[in-house]
Specification:
The protein is 54% helix and 8% strand. By secondary structure, the protein is of the alpha+beta class. It folds into 3 domains: 80 residues, no CATH class; 136 residues, Butyryl-CoA Dehydrogenase, subunit A, domain 2; 325 residues, Butyryl-CoA Dehydrogenase, subunit A, domain 3 (Up-down Bundle). Strands 1, 2, 3, 5, 6 and 9 form a 6-stranded mixed sheet that branches. Strands 4-8-7 form a 3-stranded antiparallel sheet, with no helix packed on it. A two-stranded antiparallel ribbon has the order 10-11. Helix 9 crosses helix 19 and helix 14 crosses helix 15.
Length: 670
């Protein structure tokens, strides 16, 4: 069956009725018109000969892995060739596009080589000495070796100080001896570790003379470079099928008396000298700096996943017609139902909010990395706190939002070919990898306790927490107006008071005789709530600043109006989500609450004509969305039927199971 070469009339109408220029929106959200054009050029070059991703749904687990390796190798070759043609010697395209939306089209099963790019190569460059980078880092960047980052263990994840893998220094041979002494100390989860990587960076406890000196990074070869067979003392393999990311080849690693040269410890910061002398890192957190980068990238990528789901659902909601609003009228577009708008529009606003906040977070990461290179470590605590809370809130919001959007598509959203299930498995996985969300919120909660101690002592706070000092001095909340600034300050004021209450609860428990760890555990609910609100306050303020700041003068009035509507929706929706906490500290009347609801319904009506156009502005190629429901042309039903015809069960007139099971059963006179 051929899909008609036409645009669905409902989508044509939606695009025609938009009140702003979609291209201007796209240039704004990508931050640079040249970058947007480069993205389109890259897509045009790379998507010419892609295999149909629906085939993956019918392959065996082993075949999916093999296809994932093939796709990753082809993607790397394509990107490198394009890089050399467009930007010889530069880094504008490669290797950054091994992650993000372009990679989702090139490597739909997930890539067993992604950790090599995102963490292994970066750690060699950022944590290794210049000599180590020359010896190993350049080989990694040239794909002469393939590596991964082995940190998490079967029995320990986010709690890094509990890692059991040992690296004991042997003075007599100038080597480290690596061991995983228990089953729970086996490395577990690193992408590509199963069968793809031949090297890895192992995060292990350093021991000198049986004295434990904390976790450090060690470069380890796990497979022979020629035969790819595991080396002696190495127990390695794939951890098995997961609910998603089937091509990533997550692996396990056990070590028994594996020896590596002393110089295989990454020693840019902490060092072990030939005589066994240990030289501490100037800042212990530098060991975890690669994780901070990955958390920043998770916020960026999960925002993209939510944007893809919003695009699919919004287009489908404009094409699907169902349930007349007036009994004698034709079936309207589902998007005309207010309840559907409430499912779709807030997720679009959340995408914009996190797009802006993730940009601020990444900017802070770049500034901090530059400062670290100058031996200035003052920005590390603030970056750590913001990366933790943003990673936790964005991954939760994106996973929750994608599932909400899937449900908004009714039964068709349950089809694998809709791709919403795949987006969900990618988004929800990020809730637990690179730091489980509750643990990250607890870390931020502890930082907020320290901030409150500094407030009481009259000390200056880090910039992203400065509002705590300001709100702590308010005797009560300002007069409620319901405008943007009021809503942002309501989130900040509530975050401040939740921090104050958590601090008071923690202090009271200490006074009752609990130890600090016991008091932290007992205050965990209040601390995580304060941390979440701190993140919400940052995201809301960042959105507010973008819409009302000097950048507004660079945009057209029509685009500014759309962004103002999205800001209004985001703030009202977020305040309503946290109304129980807000009412604890701010006296609101029934009229105030009614006004908020009216504001919500008004802004939904204002955004309704622009929802499809906003999603068009995200500029996702159909190959990236990979959805029968979300293609640009809107030919939903034709694509659903075409995908169904590709099922292996439809390739035979009579299935094997009929003769083997059904026919004998029906004739058995049971």
């Amino acid at each position: 069956m051929l899909i008609p070469k036409r645009i669905n009339s409902d989508l044509e109408k939606e695009r025609k009725n938009a009140t702003f220029d979609v291209e201007e929106f796209s240039n704004w959200i990508y931050g640079d018109a040249n970058l947007l054009q480069l993205k389109r050029l890259v897509e045009e070059e790379l998507y010419k000969d892609l295999e149909d991703p629906i085939e993956l749904d019918y392959l065996s687990y082993e075949d999916v892995y093999n296809r994932g390796v093939k796709h990753s190798v082809v993607a790397a070759e394509k990107l490198r060739a394009l890089q050399e043609r467009l930007y010889p010697g530069g880094t504008e395209i490669y290797p950054t596009e091994m992650g993000g939306p372009i990679s989702m089209a090139l490597m739909p099963a997930g890539s067993p080589l992604a950790v090599h790019v995102l963490m292994f190569s970066r750690a060699l460059k950022g944590q290794g000495t210049p000599e180590q980078y020359e010896k190993f880092g350049r080989r990694a960047e040239n794909w002469e070796i393939i590596g991964t980052y082995a940190q998490t263990e079967l029995g320990h994840g986010t709690y890094l100080r509990g890692l059991e893998t040992r690296a004991d220094y042997d003075r007599t041979t100038d080597e480290f001896v690596l061991n995983t002494p228990t089953l729970t100390s086996y490395k577990w989860w690193p992408g590509g570790l199963g069968q793809s990587a031949n090297y890895c960076i192992v995060v292990a406890q350093l021991y000198i003379d049986d004295q434990k000196l904390g976790v450090h990074l060690f470069l380890l070869q796990v497979r022979d470079e020629e035969t790819h067979a595991p080396l002696p003392g190495i127990d390695i393999g794939d951890i098995g099928k997961k609910i998603g990311m089937l091509g990533v080849n997550n692996g396990y690693l056990g070590l028994k008396n594996v020896r590596i040269p002393r110089m295989n410890m990454l020693m840019k910061n902490a060092k072990v000298l030939r005589d066994g002398t240990y030289v501490k890192s100037p800042v212990s957190q530098l060991t975890y700096f690669p994780m901070v980068y990955v958390r920043c990238m998770i916020v960026v990528n999960n925002t993209i996943l939510l944007a893809e789901a919003a695009t699919i659902t919004t287009r489908y909601s404009a094409v699907r017609r169902q349930s007349p609003i007036n009994p004698h009228s034709p079936e309207p577009q589902v998007l005309d139902h207010l309840t559907q708008q409430m499912k779709v529009a807030p997720e679009i606003a959340i995408v914009i909010a996190y797009r802006l906040a993730s940009g601020e977070l990444y900017k802070m990461y770049v500034q901090t990395a530059e400062a670290v290179n100058r031996a200035d470590y003052s920005r590390l605590p603030e970056l750590h706190a913001l990366a933790c809370t943003m990673k936790a809130s964005c991954t939760y919001d994106s996973a929750f939002g994608i599932e909400r959007l899937r449900l908004s598509c009714g039964g068709h959203g349950y089809l694998t070919s809709a791709n919403l299930g795949n987006l969900f498995t990618w988004a929800t996985a990020a809730c637990t990898y690179e730091g489980e969300n509750s643990v990250l919120y607890l870390q931020v909660g502890k930082i907020l306790l320290k901030a409150w101690t500094d407030i009481l002592a009259g000390k200056k706070l880090m910039p992203t927490m400065q509002y705590l000092s300001e709100c702590a001095n308010w005797k009560e909340f300002r007069q409620w107006t319901g405008d943007w600034e009021c809503l942002v300050q309501a989130l900040q004021y509530t975050s401040t008071n939740k921090t104050r209450i958590a601090y008071n609860s923690y202090s009271a428990r200490l006074e009752r005789g609990l130890t600090q760890p016991e008091a932290i555990n007992a205050t965990g609910i209040e601390l995580t709530q304060a941390a979440e609100l701190h993140g919400r306050a940052f995201v809301g303020y960042t959105f507010f600043k973008e819409v009302t700041g000097p950048c507004a003068a660079k945009r057209s009035p029509s685009l500014n109006k759309v962004l103002e509507d999205l800001l209004q929706l985001y703030l009202v929706h977020t305040v309503q989500r946290h109304m129980a906490d807000i009412l604890r500290f701010i006296s609101l009347t029934e009229d105030h609450l009614t006004s908020l609801q009216t504001s919500l319904e008004t802004v939904l009506a204002q955004l309704r004509p622009n929802l499809v156009a906003i999603c068009d502005g995200f500029d996702f190629h159909d190959k990236v969305l990979s959805s029968v429901l979300g293609c640009y042309d809107g030919n939903v039903y034709e694509r659903i039927f075409e995908a169904a015809k590709k099922s292996p069960l439809n390739q035979k007139i009579v299935p094997e199971a009929y003769e083997k099971y059904l026919k004998p059963f029906m004739r058995s006179n049971l």
